[in-house]
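Onboarding guide, step 5: your first structure request.
Type a short instruction followed by the sequence, for example:

Predict the 3D structure of this protein.
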Amino acid sequence: MKQSNLLPSYYRFVGLAIAITAFLLPVLLGITMEKSSGIPEIWREILRTVILMGLLVAILSREKTEDEFIANCRLRAAVTAFIFGIVIYIASIFMSLNNIGNIYSAFRVILSQSVYYLIMFNLYKRGNLVKND
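The system replies with structure tokens like these:
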């Protein structure tokens, strides 16, 4: 198998630690991420960027044994996460038209896609989701 351009496997833990820390930091400090809170807008955007970068590092880290099965799991998880993100965005548009909620921001869509990818990849990898063809 040819060499892939992924990060070393231990970066998964580094990326998840960065994302979780950036997510929990405002909670531990008692600050909400809402616009009406006392935190300046620039810090909210920095924390959101750090969360997404941490998840990206976790997604781009290789497995200890990187083979065709893992590549197939990555592809299937990426496809389902992409479709999931589109469905979430379209659903948020319909909900906003009915005054049920707001249209999701790009951050929320990308965050949900990234988390969904990580969940689906691990489920595919462990064989909990069986391919039906």
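Each response can be followed by summary notes, for example: Residues 43 and 115 are 22 Å apart (CA to CA).
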